[in-house]
């Protein structure tokens, strides 16, 4: 069964769409769930929203909502299915350094509700109501955002780029935190989320523009640029440079083609910011 994981590298617009509700009469939703299960059985993950593998429907698959079970244990699977989920209440606050299968190596410090009550339909189409507490609330919140085209980076207090093998050590030093178990959780409006996206985009653009300036001075470090941007292409570029030394290009300095690509990325980010501003003004 072919499944293609969607990522922000090529599929950000796809991931930004709002997933459609499942029609129990028209949709072959059980086949969709089989695809979700197959993917999760082969992958280290806490959970998955259907849109992440090319199924823009409101289905969430929870695989591992426990902090005491290592993600590397791919055999562990809670196999909990939520169809057309709707949150009826949220309270308390937690924080966790979240990552995402769709967001490359970008990890963000995100605040989530400690407790949520959710109404949803199970795989047999029966309506359920369930309370999710602690870390399982964080996991589910992350996936519910995917259904509305929201990525964890959009609402993160901080975003850093960190490879998967390093994230485990970092989380050991900066573990999941319960800030409060009671009190209303204030869900950010879409305008507030867009403002956060704008702020994060501005920071990235500034770093990319600095990288361009450094390139002109032959000072750019590709590894640092990779940390700024999160793309593996820059490291591949560095490897190619080192394999075939060019007297006009120092090792660790971007090629002319790579710089043009970088400039296009800056332009694309600026266009994204413009769209966000326009959306904000319309509302």
Distance between the termini: 42 Å
Give the structural class.
Answer: alpha+beta
Count of β-strands:
8
Largest β-sheet summary: 8 strands, antiparallel
| Tally of helical runs | 9
Q: What is the overall shape?
A: globular
What share of the residues does DSSP label as strand, in percent? 15-25%
Q: Do you know the CATH architecture of the largest domain?
A: Alpha-Beta Complex
Could you list the spans in which at least 5 consecutive residues all have pLDDT below 50? 222-235, 244-256
Order of helices and strands: HHEEEEEEHHEHEHHHH
Looking at CATH, the homologous superfamily of the largest domain is Peptide deformylase
Rg calculated over all Cα atoms? 20 Å
Kindly report the average pLDDT value. Answer: 81
Domains, number: 2
- The level 1 CATH classification of the largest domain is Alpha Beta
Describe this protein's structure.
There is one protein chain. The chain is an alpha+beta fold and 283 residues long. It has two domains: 12-187, Alpha-Beta Complex (Peptide Deformylase); 197-282, no CATH class. It contains nine helices and eight strands. The chain has helices at 12-15, 29-41, 135-147, 152-155, 164-173, 190-216, 222-229, 233-243, 256-282; strands at 47-49, 59-62, 80-98, 106-112, 115-121, 127-133, 158-161, 177-184. Helix 6 packs antiparallel against helix 9 and helix 7 (222-229) runs antiparallel to helix 8. It is globular. The N and C termini lie far apart (42 Å). The model is unreliable at 222-235 and 244-256 (pLDDT under 50).
């Amino acid at each position: 069964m072919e499944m293609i994981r969607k990522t922000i590298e090529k599929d950000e617009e796809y991931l930004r769409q709002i997933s459609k509700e499942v029609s129990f009469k028209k949709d072959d939703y059980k086949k969709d769930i089989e695809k979700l299960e197959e993917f999760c059985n082969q992958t280290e993950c806490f959970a998955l929203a259907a849109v992440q593998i090319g199924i823009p429907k409101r289905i969430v698959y929870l695989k591992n909502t426990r902090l005491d079970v290592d993600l590397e244990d791919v055999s562990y699977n809670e196999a909990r299915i939520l169809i057309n989920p709707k949150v009826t209440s949220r309270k308390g606050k937690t924080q966790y350094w979240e990552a995402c299968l769709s967001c490359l190596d970008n990890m963000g410090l995100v605040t989530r509700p400690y407790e949520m009550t959710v109404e949803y339909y199970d795989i047999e189409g029966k309506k359920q109501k369930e309370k999710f507490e602690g870390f399982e609330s964080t996991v589910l919140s992350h996936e519910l955002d995917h259904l509305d085209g929201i990525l964890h980076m959009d609402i993160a207090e901080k975003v850093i780029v960190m490879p998967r093998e390093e994230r485990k050590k970092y989380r050991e030093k900066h573990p999941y935190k319960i800030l409060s178990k009671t009190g209303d959780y204030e869900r950010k409006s879409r305008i507030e989320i867009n403002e956060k996206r704008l702020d994060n985009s501005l920071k990235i653009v500034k770093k990319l523009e600095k990288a361009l300036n450094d390139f002109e001075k032959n000072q750019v470090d590709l590894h640092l640029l990779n940390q700024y941007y999160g793309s593996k292409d820059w490291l591949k570029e560095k490897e190619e440079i080192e394999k075939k030394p060019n007297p006009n290009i120092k090792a660790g300095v971007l090629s002319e083609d790579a710089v043009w690509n970088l400039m296009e990325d800056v332009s694309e980010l600026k266009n994204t910011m413009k769209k966000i501003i326009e959306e904000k003004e319309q509302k």
